[in-house]
Amino acid sequence: MSRLTACFDRLRAENRAAFITFVTASDPDFDTSLEIVAGMPDAGADIIELGMPFTDPSADGPAIDRAAQRALAAGGSMVKTLEIVRRFRAGNDSTPIVLMGYFNPVYAYGIERFCADAANAGADGLIIVDLPPEEDEELRIPANKAGIDVIRLATPTSDDERLPTILSGASGFVYYVAVAGVTGGKSATADDIGAAVERIKSHTDLPVAVGFGIRTPEQAKAVAEVADAAVVGSAIVSLIEGGLDDDNKPGKGMSKDVLAFTRKLADGVRSAKR
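The chain above was modelled as a monomer; its predicted structure follows.
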């Protein structure tokens, strides 16, 4: 059983949603990034999405775009991203890690090599936001053979005709992008999210995670009441940015502050009534 399946099975038995965090690997530097990622489980994260830094993150808003640029400026790379996963896994064998990003860095690294190295490092899933389901076989098949789930994205415009294509071959969970636009944008209403999750679930047994626009514990709680997972990224990344000095170096206590905020978000998710 994969870590993702085991995680969602356990939380289903506990009658609660998962809390999924997102940070960009090597933002603001390798050591600080590893410290934050390693501290996420104790701060309440059930699953961690780790962004693979890329020069042109077209689906992301300004906060995550800047995080990617900081990571690259600090020497972030695919090799270092996988090294963060490897070091995290040395101390934590249960919390799932999902690598999230764009196809270009994966392709440049080499698809077969990437899938093998990601699996050996301890990654559990992939979200490649610019790779449509009709064109992802060249990555999905070797990833699945390596034991890595390929997670698909659904959006408010994914109608009942489109959803079967999105879901065919998907595994791990479905990531529902709650709003049209880039990360960190406006928030959707709980009613809208609930209706969308119900519609997606009529097509699949996979858990449905909801992200984009969740910034507060209250919003995370509202999402956790209607979905299988709530995903928070831009709000955490923005707190990292806010704790940097003019040279993009972390100030004293920045990691602690980020993890304290993560705990508040996790408490919001865990307080949701199912």
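Strands lie at 18-24, 47-51, 97-101, 125-128, 149-150, 152-154, 174-177, 208-211, 229-232.
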